[in-house]
Amino acid sequence: MAAKGSARPVMPRVALYLAAITVAFCSAAPFLWSVITAFKQNRDLYNPDNNPFLFNRPPTPDHIAYLFEKTAFGTYLWNTLWVGVLVVLITLVLGLPAAYALARLDRPWAGWFGIVIFLVYLVPPSLLFLSLSRIVVALGLQDSTWSLVVIYPTITIPVSIWLLIGFLKAVPRDIEEQAMVDGYSRLGAFWRAVVPLTFPGIVAVVVFAFTLTASEFIYALAFVSPSSEKVLSTGVPTELVRGDVFFWQSLQAATIIVALPLAFVFNLFLDRFIAGFTQGAVKG
Amino acid sequence: MKAKIADRDGALAWIFLMPSVVYILALVAVPFILAVGLAVSDVTAGDPSFNFVGGKNFEAAFSDPVFWRSLGNTFLFTSVSMVLIVILGKVVANILIADFKGKWFVRFLVLLPWTTPVTLGAISWLWLLDSIYSPIDWVLRQLGFLAPQGNGSNMYWLGEPGLAMLSVIAVHVWRLTPLAAVIMMAGLVAIPKDMDEAARIDGAGWWRRMFEVTIPMTLPVIAVAALFGAIFTFTDMAVVDVLTNGGPNNATQVLTSWAFFRGIDGGDIGQGAAVALFLFPLLMAAAIAILRAVRKLEVH
Question: Where residue B151 sits, what CATH number does that domain have?
Fold first, then answer.
């Protein structure tokens, strides 16, 4: 790693490990609590005198079975997945050429154009959801998951362009020029030489864009109300709560089932993501 | 010949950019203008016909004390969260960039709050802060800070106005600190190795290098992290919606949730748009201020 050894001689190892454990614990504590809860029997859970951190009765997988068999959780999971995949595809198809144009085609306005696009990312859903819901109605997409496929790229395209600019700038120009000398057109060089070299960065952007779509809440809440069309972020909190009755174990199981794979995949590409962020931030 | 290639590149640049630009214009710029239109109209869910009413929606919004309460809460949540997110993000970034065993696992756990969809993370907290079964309350009872049973045996984290605000801020900080940390790690990685090395050879200790090399060098990135933290807190309503639904008694109502409540739930789209639009100049001012600060720092 880049900072290898920089902290080691001064900051004692023990302090470093203590700090790392504390930080990890603070981040994960609510999820640990979710894991314990998900496997608890009702009679164990709803007794305020029981030690909540222990299993006072044997753990049970019933509530996880309930989640998949008796609720629409599977549908939400599936909806989030296919919406995410389509949004990521749209984002790449539109964003990658745009990023290339800004990173490589030497337009004098590329710099400020990049900043304007980044500013678009800062226009929040909270400002647009009311008028976008009128547009969604006009497109005939109200109460359909497809409305999210159309709208989410407005969030993912700007930030992806910004990250992709960073990755594309890191590709040496010689490689492209060599490909063009070898007889490829500019387009061919982009597709055959630049894209394969940027591939790890593209994957990092895919993961980031997918995480953003899976997390989005306001649009999903405003555009889609039928249960079968909902995604995870709106379906789980609205449908697993019946009036005042919370299906706590199933709710916590749902959280864990979604949280672990997302963090796992993101962690695989964390270093790439960091690299892209640096390149994008240092406009050179 | 050379000029010709440049021309072709120019055309290609536009062809490559056009789809994204059109998409963004159609679904960001147009709705934004439409939002301005809605804010000065009397459109409701029941009566979608457009009639110009001028500043009436704003007057109605401003005369409602809940609006001012929401505005105050939005500022409070954003400013407190932002400060904590930047400080904690910096600390976490410095830890995660060091070398130690099990780093992969620690990073995985630290990423969890941010990569988990925000409503699901908030559900975890909702149960953690439950009015009866909160494990925090259980620990406090065991330690004797709360009565063993009956009156005073629970904190009601989300039921007391002050505690509810504290809880909402805690969840925002918990959720956004990993993102800030990741952004700041990007800054730390970019510091030229020899600068740190030179300072070390000059005999500068860890703290001195931190405050005289690392922090000044990474200030632009810290500012970007602050901007992200501020905007995500400022415009969020998921945490509030899941944890408190704006309650108790609007104590945690924020502008976004209030706009949603008026515009979608209440059906008064004009007034909802007016409340939402009120966010915009504030956001722009914050974004421009921070980006300017970044630029200034980069020049020096």
Answer: 1.10.3720.10
CB-based contact, B103 to chain A, within 8 Å = yes
For residues A31 and A114, membership in a common domain is answered with no
Q: Is B56 helix (H, G, I), strand (E, B) or coil?
A: helix
Distance CA A157, CA B28 (A): 11
**Chain-chain contact of B9 with A105 (C-beta, under 8 angstroms):** yes
**Residues of the domain holding B240:** 66-299
Q: Are residues A120 and A43 in the same domain?
A: no
pLDDT tens for each residue of A142-167: 899 999 999 999 999 998 998 888 88
Of B13, B123, B193, Cβ closest to residue A101: B13
| Global ipTM | 0.83
Q: Do A131 and B283 touch (CB under 8 A)?
A: no
| Cα A257 to Cα B167: distance, rounded to the nearest angstrom | 24
A130 within some domain: yes
In the predicted structure, residue A1 carries a pLDDT above the cut 50: no
With CB atoms and an 8 Å threshold, state whether A259 touches B105: no
How many structural domains does chain A have?
2
- Tell me: cis bond preceding B248? Omega within 30 of 0 counts: yes
Helix (H, G, I), strand (E, B) or coil at A283: coil
Q: Per the domain annotation, does A1 fall within a domain?
A: no
Do A70 and A53 reside in the same domain of the chain? no
Q: Is the pLDDT of residue A8 over 60?
A: no
Per-residue pLDDT reduced to its tens digit, B119-164 = 999 989 998 888 888 888 888 888 888 777 777 778 888 888 889 9
**What pLDDT sits at residue B174?**
94
Alpha-carbon distance A180 to nearest alpha carbon in chain B (angstroms): 12
Enumerate residues 185 to 244 of chain B having a beta carbon within 8 A of any beta carbon in chain A: 185-190, 193, 196, 205-206, 220-221, 224, 227, 231, 234-238, 241-242
**Structure confidence by residue, pLDDT tens digits, B77-123:** 988 999 999 999 999 998 998 888 889 999 999 999 999 999 999 98
Nearest to B246 by CA among B230, B229, B220, B266: B266
Token pair for A28: 């994960």
Phi and psi at A87, nearest 5°, equal: -60, -40
A29 and A99: one domain? no
Of A123, A130, A151, the CB nearest to B38: A130
Does residue A134 lie within any of the structural domains?
yes
